[in-house]
Amino acid sequence: MKVGTIDLNQQASALHVLVQEVSRKIKNNGTKGIDKVTIVDQDDQPVSGVAVTASYSGPNAGITSATTNTKGIARLTTTSVANPVGMWCFTITDITKDGYTYDPNSNTATTQCENSRTEIVSDQREFNTSALPNPFSSTTAIQFTIPEKQFVTLDVIDINGKQVASLINEEMPAGNNTVSFYATMLSNGIYFYKLSTPKYSEVKKFILNK
């Protein structure tokens, strides 16, 4: 009778979830929940090319999937919601890659939700700032968009970096905002307007030509 042997070195490596970080991203057309998932093997080494599937609930619900990069990170996202109510939670339902098995018992976390420390990620390009007209002779309207109600400063700076006007220094509502800038006391030349929020700032040029 032939006796079989098992080579332990040929057993498949086991994968598990090391970290889940849930946040949200705000865009002009809505908000998405994001789950940044790190997948590692039994030696806690990151593994690329792993298909990660999760269910999510909260402001909306569904199934999402993504593949890990070279750092073992997959970014799972929800579909967009215009005015989300509540917090998103993600539950990992499957992890697959040829030659590997999934060991959910080793997961540091299988379900993760947003919390009070969740960072709301916004894109600087969403300010959509503009000055019209530009160039201008005495007055121009500076327009900008912010994704949520927040504290905003809007300053005018000359070409030497000196602040010559403070137009906004207060909490502003979400959406499109406009403020007029009267430059009757300034000389012709190049100026800059700087829009700042607690997380981002943006500087653009305009020209005064009386």
Short account of what is shown:
With 210 residues, the chain is mainly beta.
CATH topology of the largest domain: Immunoglobulin-like
What share of the residues does DSSP label as strand, in percent?
A: over 45%
Elements, N to C (H/E) = EEEEEEEEEEEEEEEE
Q: Specify the number of helices.
A: 0
Q: Would you state the CATH class of the largest domain?
A: Mainly Beta
CATH superfamily of the largest domain: Immunoglobulins
The count of DSSP E runs of length 2 or more, i.e. the number of strands, is 16
Mean pLDDT: 86
CATH architecture field of the largest domain? Sandwich
Q: What's the overall geometry?
A: elongated
CA distance, first residue to last residue: 102 Å
Please state the CA-atom Rg, rounded to the nearest Å: 25 Å
Strand pairing plus helix content: what structural class?
mainly beta
Fraction of residues in H or I helices: under 10%
Chart the SSEs and their pairings.
Elements: E1 13-27, E2 30-40, E3 51-57, E4 62-67, E5 73-77, E6 89-96, E7 100-102, E8 111-113, E9 120-122, E10 130-132, E11 139-146, E12 150-158, E13 163-172, E14 175-182, E15 189-196, E16 201-208
Parallel strand pairs: 1-7, 1-9
Antiparallel strand pairs: 1-2, 2-5, 3-4, 3-6, 6-8, 10-11, 11-14, 12-13, 12-15, 15-16
Describe it.
The protein is mainly β and 210 residues long. It contains no helices and 16 strands. It has 2 domains: 109 residues, Immunoglobulin-like; 86 residues, Macroglobulin (MG2) domain (Immunoglobulin-like, Sandwich), CATH 2.60.40.1930. Strands 1, 2, 5, 7 and 9 form a 5-stranded mixed beta sheet that branches. A hairpin with a 4-residue loop joins strand 3 and strand 4.
